[in-house]
Amino acid sequence: MEIFLYEFGILALIGGVLSAVATSLLGSVVVLRKMSFFGSGIAHLSFIGVGLALFFKFPPTIVTLAVAMAAAIILGFLARRGVHEDIGVGILFSTSMALGIILIYLAKIDNSRVMAYLFGDILAIGWKDVVFSSIVTALVVLYIVFFKDHIIYITFDEDFSKVLGINIPFVYYTFLILLAVSIVVSMNLLGIVLVSAMVVVPAASASLVSRTYQGMFKLAPLISVASVFFGLIFSWNFDIPAGASIVLVQGIVFLFTFLVKILSG
């Protein structure tokens, strides 16, 4: 617990908790819609934004956000016309990483800075990051409160959703944009490589033990927040990277819940 005696530890905990809540709530929808690859894909597509920002010396967060939201909208548009979200991501995944790597190479950026984008550094975030995360998390919570049932209806029966008068494009594209923004914000904590775990793993664990969708939306944030708390403690005590420690805890929780489900029949 010594890590939480320092300001960087407190900031890491607050930022991690905020990111955990936002990504796990949206991740519950991702798991229900069977679009887990989409979250990872958005993170990797965002690497173009990082490359463009470093090459042209623009603010990385703004450019990456713009690229991520544009990618989410384009992939959503393709999905609405018969191309599944994961297929669209698969087409653009490797190309975006390749272009980002080329731009960063041409910009002559130090390798340590590139590693920070790839793997994140939750212990280096500041109050500005916490404030930004707070705004994004508040928007995600409001979205889930007001549109959770709508997105579930759309997921399982779009025709019935039309009968109910649900504005399907608005609900769907708003979800994709919030997912993209949440992923970009979480990239500062875990990096491009690990951020998809924050979206998928807690929600997947919750889906194994929750009997209802309501329970899944409640349990996933609890698992994710607990993973951040214990991940930071393990990171401090065993002198290992914090982001990787958080993801490792999430993976252990998933394996445990999976075994419990199997053994309980």
In words, what does this structure look like?
This protein has 265 residues and is mainly α. It has a single domain (2-259), classed as ABC transporter involved in vitamin B12 uptake, BtuC, CATH 1.10.3470. 84% of the residues lie in helices and 0% in strands. The chain has 11 helices and no strands. The protein has helices at 7-32, 36-45, 47-56, 60-79, 85-106, 111-119, 127-156, 158-163, 168-209, 213-238, 242-263. α2 runs parallel beside α5, α3 (47-56) runs parallel beside α5 (85-106) and α6 crosses α9 (168-209). The chain is globular.
Layout of helices and strands:
Layout lengths: L6 H26 L3 H10 L1 H10 L3 H20 L5 H22 L4 H9 L7 H30 L1 H6 L4 H42 L3 H26 L3 H22 L2
Helix pairs in contact: 1-7, 1-9, 1-10, 2-5, 2-9, 3-4, 3-5, 4-9, 6-9, 7-9, 9-10, 9-11, 10-11
CATH architecture annotation: Orthogonal Bundle
| The CATH superfamily title | ABC transporter involved in vitamin B12 uptake, BtuC
Helix content: over 70%
Average pLDDT = 88
Distance between the termini: 37 Å
| Tertiary shape | globular
CATH topology: ABC transporter involved in vitamin B12 uptake, BtuC
Number of helices: 11
Class derived from helix and strand content:
mainly alpha
